[in-house]
Amino acid sequence: MKIILSFLSMLLIVTNSVLLLFQYHVYSSGLEDSEQSFLYEQEIEIKLKKDKLMIRQHFMNLPEEKIKITWPISSENRSCYLDTSESCNRLSEDLISFKEGDTSKQSISYEIPLIDGLHDGIVLSGFLAKLEKGGVSYTTLHITDELKKGGMWVSGLPIVGTTSLDEIDYSLFFGAGSFTDLYWQEELLPVKFENDNFTIHSKEELSEDLKTLLTEMQLTNSEHISVLFTENKYNIKSSRIAFVENKDLASIQRELIIKNVQLQYGLVAENLIMAEVISSFLTDSPIGSEKSIWMYETLTNYFTEDQLSDWKKVLMENKQLSAQKLDGLLSEVIELKTSFFTLNEQFKADKYPLLFEDNRTVYINDQQQKDVKVLFKDGKVMYAAEPLLTALGYTLKDTDKGLYVQNAMRAFRFPIKEPFYVLNDKRYDAMSEPFEKIGADFYLEESWMNRLFLVDIEKQEKRISVTQSASF
């Protein structure tokens, strides 16, 4: 233990002055986030046992108000960690909150089971306790490996140092914000480059061009990213951990920009499309998959110069984004309601076009309909077919011979993309297609709705009324 303390002291003395300035910058900039009511610091001690992690988590700079604790779902043996006489004096008896009080530091302990033990490529996610409405300004992470498994731990936090003693291996990390994932692999990749933005792990030496790129990259997010120049053989997805296989500068730059955007806007690693589209706008250059580039170009081609400028401005002003929030911001910029991001996220394999929605409420026979969406597409007004026709008393069935729509008296068949339809076994030619499939749903064009399903449509400022004009 004395050796560990000596090692810690040496590391902290070397980095102390830099860290103090860094902490102040992170803390003061973090206060601008209106979605968090307070910021706190945390220190996490992890001990690796054969079948579990033993964790002590210390929370510092706590406000005096009552604070709810969100424990990891898989955590066991939840308890106070009695470090000092006051280290748990705010912890409620049911362990679900810190009570009101002026003690600014509180400590807890818990265990996380490792069902399969520690194995190559393991990723631990969602295993830390969190405080409701609180944001983490910076984190200190200690990992003590009593199994002496070697290898390397990666969290996204800057690594301060590692040491191997007779009975344990020890690693120390420190950096801005929190971290969501802790990754371990058997192969040790040495650090070849590090600055405020990145730690680069690689077997090979980095080129001078790459070092220049990493040094000069202007990133808007203050949280650090760990980059492993190796194959992502376990398909690890983490916002603060990047795997880079393609070593050309353009590919590396794209990967790091996207990771930075994921961190800046709180986008989950799986939501890659949103991060790629935002990255494209922030860099004025298409980045990412074919679909992401298509989305970027679709919006760019639609925007006026003023709208494009407003769009970039709102992206820079917001800190937490999702597909739904992006749609809200986009709707404000173009002054038309759209679900462009939400539907493209939902239908990842398809390209959902940029369509605009009528935000008036639809009533059918004076009954309010929540699911009848009305779209504007290519100069046409389109109604979500299934909820509309169901409310009118019809059933719909999609088959390989077309779309069948019928009630007790009227039976239609619409062979999609064919210029005719069938009503009660009689064929009629059609100059246009009544139905169109958009995403996973069929939509019915308004003029055909009048003609085929015998309804009257009245539009007012806040509502659209659809009334059956005849019954058969």
Could you explain the architecture of this structure?
This protein is an alpha+beta fold and 472 residues long. The chain is built from ten helices and 31 strands. Strand 11 and strand 12 form a beta hairpin. The longest helix has 29 residues, at 2-30. It starts with a helix and ends with a strand.
Keywords:
single chain; alpha+beta; 4 domains; 7-stranded mixed β-sheet; 10 helices; 27% helix; 33% strand
Radius of gyration: 29 Å
| Low-pLDDT windows of residues | 1-34
Strand content: 25-35%
General shape: elongated
Approximate helicity band: 25-40%
| Major sheet description | 7 strands, mixed
How are strands sequenced across the largest beta sheet?
Answer: 4-6-2-1-9-12-11
Mean pLDDT: 87
DSSP summary, beta strand count: 31
- At the first level of CATH, the class of the largest domain is Mainly Beta
Distance between the termini: 88 Å
Q: What is the level-2 CATH architecture name of the largest domain?
A: Sandwich
Domain module count: 4
Number of helices: 10
Output the structural class. Answer: alpha+beta
Q: What topology does this entry show?
A:
Blueprint: H1 2-30, E1 38-48, E2 52-60, E3 67-70, E4 76-80, E5 97-98, E6 106-113, E7 122-125, E8 130-131, E9 134-145, E10 152-154, E11 159-164, E12 169-176, E13 181-185, E14 191-194, E15 198-201, H2 208-216, E16 225-228, E17 241-243, H3 249-265, H4 272-283, H5 290-302, H6 305-317, H7 323-334, H8 340-346, E18 356-357, E19 361-364, E20 367-369, E21 374-377, E22 380-384, H9 385-391, E23 395-399, E24 402-406, E25 411-414, E26 420-423, E27 426-429, E28 435-438, E29 441-445, H10 446-453, E30 455-459, E31 463-468
Parallel strand pairs: 1-9, 15-16, 16-17, 19-31
Antiparallel strand pairs: 1-2, 2-6, 3-5, 3-8, 4-6, 7-13, 9-12, 10-13, 11-12, 14-15, 18-21, 19-20, 21-22, 22-29, 23-24, 24-25, 25-26, 26-27, 28-29, 30-31
Helix pairs in contact: 3-4, 4-5, 6-7, 7-8
